[in-house]
Each structure stands twice: as C-alpha cells, then as structure tokens.
Design brief:
This protein has three helices and 31 strands. By secondary structure, the chain is mainly beta. It has an eight-stranded antiparallel sheet with strand order 26-21-22-25-28-19-18-31, with no helix packed on it. A five-stranded antiparallel sheet has the order 1-2-17-8-12, with helices on one face. Strands 3-7-13-10-11 form a five-stranded antiparallel sheet, with no helix packed on it.
Length: 442
C-alpha cells in the first residue's frame, strides 16, 4: 500500500486459495482543503472516497471535523451523535467476503456500543438513515476492529451511488443504571443527568493514512498481474508519488484537478510523478526529473510505439504493450500485436520516442517485451502538465470502470483503484507507493 499506510497492510495480498486472495482498499483520503462547508450549508464538492461529518444543533450538515485530525462519531453531547461514512466504490469488484475495519479512540467516557444504520438518501445536504443493522460493541482503544459488510458492499458495487454508506450513532451510558440513552444536542439546551458525554471516533487523519477506515476484500484476481512501471527493485527500495488517481482526481488543485483523460474509457489510468522516496537501508536516490526510466509492467509484445505529436498531440511519445488474455474456457492466451485485444498497458508523454535502455534502439510493433524492460524516459510530451507518466490499463478497447477484468487486476498486490492521491495541510503530495519492478537493462 502507500508508504504512510498501516505497516501490517503495506503492499500485500494474502493468498487464500489458487483462485482467491485478500486485498486491502482504503476508501479515503480526506483532502482537508476540500472538506469544508459554509455556514449556509452550500454544497462543496470533495474527492469522494469517504465523506464524513455530523449534524449540528441547527440541523446543518457539517464536515469541519475532517479539517482537523479526525472524522468523529460522537463527541460529547453538544450535538446529535450521528456521523456518516460514504464509500466511493466506482470501479470496485464484487467480493466473496468484505470487512470494514475502523480505528476507535475515546477518552474517559467510552461508549460500549455503536449503533449502525444504512443510508438511503443522497448526500449532501444530509443523508437519511434506512435499515438499522444493530449494535456493534466498541473495542479497546487503539485497536483496529472489523465488521462484515459483504452483503451491503456487493449490493452497492452493483450500482454505485452517492448514498452508499453507513450512519453511526454513539449512545451515552449513565454511570448509575447502565441503561443506554441516545446523547443528542437537546441535552445542551435542557441538561439531562442520565446522559454522560461520549468521545468515540472513527479516525480520519488528513495525514498520515494510518488510522483511516480500511476495507478487506476476498476476490478472484485477474490472472495476469502487473508491477509498477517505474523502478523499485525486489525489495521495493523506491516508492513513487501518485499525482492523479484512477477516476481523474488529484488533491492539490481541487475541482480544477479533475482530469477527463482519467474518466470514461480511461478510468483505469494513473499519473505517476518523478518524485520518489527511498526506503531500503543504504539506498540512495539516483533519479532526477529528466532521468526516470519507464519500465514494462508485465511481459508482452509491442502493439504500438510512436508519437501523435504531429497530429492531435495528446499522448505525445507513447507505447502500448499487449499482455495477452485470459478466459475460463481458454485459459491464458499469448500476447498479440493489437491495441484492442486482451489486456494492454499504455505509457504516455515519454520524453522521446520509445527507446530501449541503450538510448538508441527504438521499440517497434511486434517486439517482445519482458517485465522491467525500459520503454523510454518519463517526460511531458503531448497534452501534459509537468513531467509525469500517464499509465493507462485497458481490456479490449476500453479502460472503463465497469470492466470486471480491470476491477480485479492487481498491481504490486493492490487494486488499481487503491492508488490514490493525497495531500497534507500545506498541499504537499504525500501518497507514495513502492515498486518492486527491477530494470533489466534492456
């Protein structure tokens, strides 16, 4: 997973059987500069991984808690203890088992239970609750806890909507009777001695991502897997920054950051920048803005190598690799020289025409490619803002969010949907993802 993520979840997929693995997806982040609401409750669009907040005493839907360090589920009894988590599940696969993991935290008055409801109305301004799922016991401080949400999740991914999510209600517990009462904002105006303040959180830190909600999914992955198309080595010594994520958002520029070239048939595409972190002991950085090699993500054949600079000048210098196909009936099939058959990866905006590691030999259609072969140098040719690699993945002729083969495709053990952009409070990008792709020198 991303470098700042919870260490036990870092970049892993757990084998369950020959067909199924367990993968992790973090349906956040909270880009803090885009999670505010004004005093009149006007809508402010945010990146839609997880939306959270609360209802204040005047009935307004607030999200200001996200601009500090936590997404609160209850906090004292000065407002109604309702908080909402909305999941962005566009492009996510169906799964045989799904669990939601949360990190609780509380102070001196923990609640023994959390009441959970499904939501049914569109957000914003304020979602209404639907089905009450019952009480969930609150565990000890600082320990991730999980709840099975398989049925809800699979229902949601069938037809993703902006009202997919849960409402959490935190009860207060009077010390004398132990009877549970709902702590709401009326207790501020008309104090009720039965209601005791509660502080229980679903953590939603702006940075790092350690304590945000996680989803664990058991899926049957597409049999062809990828490595990140930038160098890292077998130990994942290099981690690279994501500047624009699957679906077309990036955290630095807000609404202006939506990129139509990462939507529609290009939904499954990711922008990777030249910024990186070194992770291994004794590892030293050796790449600059003009020297980052772009590597083949998997074995295949060249379906196209060239440029559109003299025509539409959109992709710039680029190369397309065909990796073959898979079907239950035919099994794995060999790569072919086609941009519209089977699984293909696209590497756009290269500094020069697609070239081998020697810097001289050009790639051409029909050439065999091995994972880790150098395809060129990261650049900014075509329609590109700054030096970066636009890495696109397609099955058949499309990279749309509804294609099952791409929903279950893994890169470095992660779903493509899991590669997200994230910023800290100073708008510095902080989401780096490790690569284990080793350059072949060819």
């Amino acid at each position: 997973m991303r470098v700042s993520a919870f260490v036990c979840l870092l970049g892993i997929s757990l084998p369950l059987s020959a067909q199924q693995v367990s993968v992790w997806y973090q349906p956040t982040p909270f880009p803090i500069q885009f999670t505010q609401r004004d005093t009149t409750n006007n809508s402010v669009q945010v990146i839609g991984h997880v939306l959270s907040g609360y209802e204040d005493p005047d009935g307004f839907w607030k999200q200001s808690t996200l601009a500090v360090s936590t997404a609160n589920v209850g906090s004292g009894n000065s407002y109604k203890n309702q908080s909402y988590l909305m999941f962005d599940l566009t492009g996510m696969p169906k799964a045989s088992n799904v669990s939601l993991f949360l990190m609780p935290a509380y102070t001196t008055n923990p609640s023994p239970y959390i009441d959970v409801y499904k939501t049914m109305s569109y957000w914003p301004p304020l979602p209404a609750s639907e089905t009450r799922l019952g009480w969930l016991p609150q565990p000890q401080f600082g320990v991730f806890w999980g709840s099975n949400i398989t049925s809800d999740y699979n229902g949601w991914v069938t037809n993703p909507s902006t009202n997919d999510g849960y409402m959490f209600d935190v009860p207060a517990v009077p010390p004398a009777t132990g009877q549970v009462y709902e702590a709401d904002f009326w207790s501020t105006m008309y104090p009720d001695p039965r209601v005791q303040p509660v502080s229980a959180y679903i953590k939603g830190n702006a940075a790092p991502s350690t304590n945000r909600p996680w989803i664990s999914l058991t899926i049957a992955p597409f049999p062809i897997s990828l490595k990140m198309p930038l160098p890292g080595g077998t130990n994942g010594d290099y981690a690279w920054v994501v500047t624009n994520e699957t679906g077309g958002y990036e955290c630095r520029t807000g609404l202006a950051g939506f990129d139509k070239y990462h939507s529609g048939t290009n939904f499954f595409s990711i922008d990777l920048g030249y910024g990186y972190m070194t992770q291994g002991a004794g590892v030293r950085g050796k790449y600059t803005q003009t020297t980052v090699p772009v590597l083949a993500a998997a074995d295949g054949v060249v379906a196209f190598a060239g440029s559109d600079i003299q025509t539409i000048n959109q992709n710039g210098n680029y190369i397309v690799i065909n990796h073959g196909d898979y079907s239950p009936a035919a099994g794995l099939t060999q790569p072919v020289v086609s941009q519209t058959a089977g699984l293909t990866t696209r590497y756009l905006h290269l500094a020069n025409l697609p070239t081998h590691a020697d810097g001289k030999t050009l790639w051409k259609a029909g050439d065999k490619v091995h994972q880790g072969d150098q395809l060129g140098i990261m650049g900014q040719t075509g329609f590109a803002q700054g030096t970066h690699l636009h890495f696109g993945v397609r099955y058949g002729s499309s990279g749309a969010s509804t294609i099952p083969q791409l929903q279950t495709l893994l890169m470095e053990g992660m779903l493509l949907k899991g590669y997200q952009t994230d910023c800290d409070g100073s708008l510095n990008r902080i989401a780096y993802y490790p690569s284990t792709n080793s350059p072949t020198g060819k």
